[in-house]
Design brief:
Number of strands: 6
Distance between the termini: 27 Å
Helix content: 25-40%
Strand content: 25-35%
Radius of gyration: 14 Å
CATH topology: NE0471 N-terminal domain-like
Shape: globular
Length: 120
């Protein structure tokens, strides 16, 4: 399991920059992290219970808090702070960014919602 060696929050550009001990690096936009939060509020309590997150284009991160030595708790400026982002989960979000982002944009479109940002 790869572990982060560097975690940098860029407040102005709303991006979380991660470097892992296997050499992999990624930049994860705050909006992407928010709409893919691993919290029950977002993913539900079982398959098919996911809650589509709307209007998160301008969300930022207020605070990063370590959760043991295995994860980050991210406090977003919209009040959301219940997701625990494990190292493997963050790594996967980076590796599958394009695919996940396109899936999110399609879900928005299918729900009749227009994405207002330039995040992806």
């Amino acid at each position: 399991m790869a572990r982060p060696t560097e975690i940098k929050l860029h407040q102005k550009s709303r991006v979380l920059e991660l470097a892992f001990d296997d050499g992999y690096t990624c930049n994860l936009p705050c909006e992407y992290l928010r709409v893919y939060s691993p919290s029950a509020e977002v993913v539900g309590h079982g398959p098919g219970q996911e809650v589509l997150q709307l209007d998160k284009e301008l969300v930022g991160i207020e605070k990063l808090e370590p959760a043991g030595n295995y994860a980050l708790k991210i406090h977003f400026d919209d009040g959301h702070a219940t997701g625990i982002y494990t190292w493997p989960y963050l790594y996967g979000l980076g590796k599958h960014y394009e695919e996940n982002w396109q899936k999110y944009l399609k879900r928005l479109k299918d729900a009749g919602h227009t994405h207002k940002g330039v995040q992806g």
